[in-house]
Amino acid sequence: MKTVLILGAGRVSAPGIDYLVRKGGCKVVVADFDDSNFATAAKLFPSAVVLKEDAGASAAKLIGQHKPDVVFCLLPPALMPHISKLCLDKKVHLVHPAYIDAPTLELSKDIERAGLIFVTELGLDPGIDHMSASKTIEGIRASGGKVESFRSLCGALPAPEANNNPWGYKLSWSPSSLIGASKRTAKILQDGQELTWPDGETYEHVYMLDMSGFAFEVYANADATVYKEAYGIPEATSIYRGTLRYPGWCETICYMNEIKYFDTDEQDTKGFTFASFTARQAGASANPKEALCRKFGLKPWSAFIMRMEWLGFFDDRPLPFDKTSAREIVSFLFAEKLLFTPEERDLVVLADELVSVSKDGARKLHRSVLVDYGIPNKWTSIAKTTGVPPAIAVRFILEGKIKTPGLHKPTLKEIYDPVLNELASEGIKLEESVKDISK
User: How far is CA 131 from the centre of its chain?
Assistant: First the structure.
């Protein structure tokens, strides 16, 4: 029997482990050093071998002991270069949902020469979006058409009935990753011109969108221009990659960026309360609410002020740190109050939109939309849509359905065709439509 070693059993792991236990036809070994993650995995998957190990630090030992055919890595992205090099040295296939990192990219020729299969960026976003776009582009190319524009949008949010706090958001993934995006530079291609919004400026270029019965605000996320090459669409004049949020999010992030609440510089915070620290960030010595109202010309009943007060930025309780960064304080409060209860559902919405032009000049709008909900008291949608796609790829590598050596994103037909079909059988299905927009 073949073996899969799963490194990490955190927030998004359970549906992927479950899939391999049910359908992988393999021995499943899971490693995580966190007490809660270990206990949960051991309880949910009695047929798997669940080990309490530091999966990152002990990866070499774990591979040596269990001799896996594939490593399924769910560790933080910062550990991916180490795991990639290790799998190359140990001659083990690798699958993970994180972005390809530069050190791994440098290994691409060695990976191919070794006959290994590394599948990266295979989760929700990136992942399902790559596969959806690649399949649509393949169809456009097959009919002799060209791609005029491409837009990919994704959001992980509370389901409407769970959207019961003034922030319009709850954590279904790492707070540090979410908050880190608040300072991310975004780049888009618009009518042939590259536009760059550095250091969180993207939140100032928000627009509203009605989609699938929801009202969202949209902001550009990261560098969308790389998809011209990644998807083989050099003729495209507009490319946009965006994030979906409920209305009000971008306004709040803009104000918080102005008072440098996402900065990572360590500060001396001994003796500070949440209120006094917020006052200092606003350039005052006391009364953070008044300081923020004065700084931004707001009233106490403005949405931003009420959100800050509700989350605890004006509380007189002591900070739990003697030294920390402003970003870590935000992360602490997010993790404390923006949480799902076990009975609540999260919501994932993913949409790819491409405009094609045929040989005779006809223009068509191609849309692929995924709307998926979490399962109360079981697991979240973000866990399903992030954990199941790479687990499927792991299975298909074991079965020889994915067999081309090299470092891959799931833009290869050999990957996206079977994985999308299997996702549909697991209830994760994109609704596709084509509309003539020539007139």
Answer: 15
Are 95 and 70 contacting, i.e. CB atoms less than 8 angstroms apart? yes
Residue written as token pair 């309360």: 273
The first and second tokens of residue 61, run together, are: 């030992």
Determine phi and psi for 19, rounding to 5 degrees: -60, -45
CATH classification for the domain delimited by 3-123+382-425, as one of 3.40.50.720, 2.40.110.10, 3.40.50.360, 3.40.50.970: 3.40.50.720
Nearest of 255, 258, 335, 336 to residue 302 by alpha carbon: 255
**46-77 residue pLDDT tens:** 999 999 989 888 999 999 999 999 999 999 88
* DSSP letters spanning 6-41: EE--STTTHHHHHHHHHH--SEEEEE---HHHHHHH
The two structure tokens encoding residue 330: 């935000």
d(CA 20, CA 274): 45
| Sign, CA torsion 129/132/134/137 | negative
- Report pLDDT digits (tens) over 285-323: 889 999 999 999 999 999 999 999 999 999 999 999 999
Q: DSSP code of 100?
A: P
What is the tens place of the pLDDT at every residue in 75-128?
A: 988 899 999 999 999 999 999 999 999 999 999 999 999 999 999 999 998 999
For the chain, what are the domain ranges? Answer: 3-123+382-425
Q: What share of the chain is helix, strand, coil (3-state, %, to 5)?
A: 40, 25, 35
Lowest mean pLDDT among 167-181, 305-319, 393-407: 167-181
pLDDT at position 405 over 70? yes
Residue found under tokens 């100032």 = 204
CA distance 99 to 108: 14
Mean pLDDT of all residues belonging to the chain: 93
CA distance 159 to 417: 29
> Could you tell me the two tokens for 192?
């042939």
Q: What is the CA radius of gyration of the chain?
A: 23
Predicted confidence (pLDDT) at residue 191 exceeds the cutoff of 90 = yes
Residue 172 phi, psi dihedral angles, 5° rounding: -115, 5
